[in-house]
Amino acid sequence: MLIYKEFSPKLAFMKLIWFIIIMNKVLIVDDEESILKGIKLNLGRTFDLTLANSPEDALNKIQQDNSFEVVVSDMRMQGMDGATMLKKIKEENPDIMTILLTGHADFEFGGSQALQSGLLFKILTKPCPPQKLSAAINAAISAKNGDDQQEDQAPEGVL
């Protein structure tokens, strides 16, 4: 026998407030719709995700709403590459943390210099498992908030 709980406006309101206050805003940029859908499916309950299907779309979304904590972008896209777009975002919004998703052969763009200069928080290689992307986003948010937690940190008691 199934028992259905009655709809509770108070509970629905509390969930909405929790979502607005607690969920961290993350912009995901990729020109492949299937990648965007997969990330939304895997991380949509963990983060407040906004999707952009081009660098131009992403730059417009940031101009409209610059409250994003993290921007995750693919490297290879039409019109402008992800590293160039993230550099523009970081120059205009230095508080936004940036993560680049790239293939192994894409490191000729100067990724290590971008990491060292602070323009990129992290570079992740594709394919990137959802757990690894989620951990990198959480680490970026922690770093932004001054928390020195590392996402690759071993559990207590493990060397």
Query: Could you state the CATH homologous superfamily?
Result: Response regulator
> CA-to-CA gap between the ends?
50 Å
Total helices: the number is 6
Secondary structure: helix percent: 40-55%
CATH structural fold name:
Rossmann fold
Poorly predicted runs are 150-159
Task: Give the H and E element order.
Answer: HEHEHEHEHEH
Q: In CATH terms, what is the architecture?
A: 3-Layer(aba) Sandwich
Count of discrete domains: 1
- Biggest sheet descriptor: 5 strands, parallel
Strands across the major sheet, in which order? 2-1-3-4-5
Residue-averaged pLDDT, rounded? 81
- Kindly state the number of beta strands: 5
Structural class: alpha/beta
Question: How would you explain this protein's 3D organization?
Answer:
The protein is α/β, with parallel strands linked by helices. It has one domain (25-144): Response regulator (Rossmann fold, 3-Layer(aba) Sandwich), CATH 3.40.50. 43% of the residues lie in helices and 16% in strands. It has helices at residues 9-22, 33-43, 55-64, 82-92, 111-117, 130-144, and strands spanning 25-29, 48-52, 70-74, 97-102, 122-125. α5 links the parallel β4 (97-102) and β5. It is globular and about 55 Å long. It starts with 8 loop residues before the first helix and ends in a 15-residue tail after the last helix.
